[in-house]
């Protein structure tokens, strides 16, 4: 792993991995790695709390679910699935605040067993009505109504990004809403300062800056999200928002019949919601 | 008026915030108001003990001075100079905090990204500016000594509270 990181020119990451405890056969100690991931994600949650990620999501998910409720005949249960939920902060926050209403089932899914286990433990400890599943979010037995994520998209490189959106488009889901770091010139500098001030472990600090550098542009996200049967939209794109106020912004994909009710539910804020054709005008 | 009272107040308030910072990022629960208050009190307690160091230093300076009145005047002048940069820093923090808690999430993000995040990183520089202020205001070496000890004390609160109570994730 260290050689791989060195070959990619990420010497800092190689040094961080080299400092982690290993077993007799030079393989990373899995328990130490789990502890580290839980620790770093706990610190990461602090950033979500400080940047009010929950409120940001509800600002958009509230109207989106209102549009889904208005369009759904007959009414069906609403299921929100957080893809790559980590410690499940968003799902647990939504469960604690009841911000989306009692008719929305909240499920967090992650490929990392340690993080999912800790998310479930935290939810149990606070008596929150939500679920956490270890595995692939697109292999759940029950279909999601809306897929969401925060800070996940920049992990997908090349064709994997479009495949991620296509998997949701081909599912029975009515919409997706994925928040990720806004790709601006300020983002890497801001990420450095913010992670330096708030994160303690070098892994968290390094990951924050690298994530900002890997953030996808508005155009790339809209292009990738344009899957069959999906209307791709971007909320608060560059040029329509202050980069200091919008460190994360979402790309949405909705079934075309939901666009009009969503815009109605958003009211004046719908001006900030643009499709590929409007984004070209904003950039110009 | 002696600058000691506002300086001690600032030191104790900073210690309470340091206690919170030592705890922040260690507890992934959603509802944690009691734990936040406890961490601030821990910071306050550690800060109260550590701030005895500059008090003892100032007392020693006064007790060993040939002319205690002159030494007191120098310390008072240095304290006033020390206070000014810290007052500017504290005012900026208070305004950022007010913006963060009162304004909608977009502007609160601005307060966090431009204000509270970088201001945390700037704490050592604020101490350096305060020490310079003490010197420039005629406080002399004794004020610089007391100011440096006080600065070191407030900067030590967060790591001490962190190591003592929050070295690992809170369960």
Automatic annotation (TrEMBL), chain B:
Q: By what name is this protein known?
A: Uncharacterized protein
The portions of this protein that span the membrane are 6-24, 44-65, 85-103, 110-135, 141-161
Which UniProt keywords are listed?
Membrane, Transmembrane, Transmembrane helix
| Phylogenetic classification of the source organism | Bacteria, Bacillati, Actinomycetota, Actinomycetes, Micromonosporales
